[in-house]
């Protein structure tokens, strides 16, 4: 299987990108500089676990250059692909640059919070982030739907993480920021869900094995490279769980909505996803 040969038609992808951008007007955008009153940020109002949860997700968001790079490698916007693939990838690029800007804003907002609230100093944090930031990130997939199915799960899991954390923190600056972050992740999820649904409708059973492989091998970003990742994720789980399996039911919903009647193979895929969820 080769990524180029399995792309959905460019008009399908372009409609999904247009939908995402229509749902993201400039009037609803926010920025680190003006959205919050940083002078009121106060980490003394947080528990150790909550501070730890903020530090954890700052590392994850800060790895954006690695995530962004995956799109360039697998959906190149140059002469290494056919004209048809270029047309598709150029449309996708309208999404990825906007998405990357938003994710980079998340990384900056979290870092700014850590600094303004007294959790750390800027230089210390910068050096800390570099340790994970320099490590490689890859999603070695063969079929294009896999990148969108992966991101669908990951965006939803991150959205849920921010919501859970927001519900328990006592610092209003952090709570307001987490609400912004979770709303952005929800919009990112919707785009991924839209694209996955379009693949399901266009390619049907041919998407089953690729999606199954994504779930079978699923790791949240940095799970394999960050030192102490699992211990850390477990330690903060009672504050906010960073658990991809909680997002699986949303993938099942996307499948259900995309197709009127499930084929046997799709049925089997849904059963598999549900099993992976209950095993966790
Ligand atoms: Fe984010
Ligand atoms: Fe996101």
Q: Key features?
A:
280 residues, mainly alpha, Ribonucleotide Reductase, subunit A, 11 helices, binds fe (ii) ion
The largest sheet, given as strand count, sense and whether it forms a barrel, is: none
Give the number of domains.
Answer: 1
Tell me the CATH superfamily. Ribonucleotide Reductase, subunit A
* Alpha-beta content class: mainly alpha
Number of helices: 11
> What is the C-level CATH assignment?
Mainly Alpha
**Small-molecule components bound:** fe (ii) ion
Number of DSSP-assigned strands: 0
Gross geometry: globular
Radius of gyration: 19 Å
Poorly predicted parts:
none
Question: Gap between N and C termini, in Å?
Answer: 30 Å
% residues in beta strands: under 5%
- Element order: H for helix, E for strand: HHHHHHHHHHH
Helix content: 55-70%
Mean pLDDT: 95
Q: Write the CATH fold name.
A: Ribonucleotide Reductase, subunit A
Supply the CATH architecture.
Orthogonal Bundle
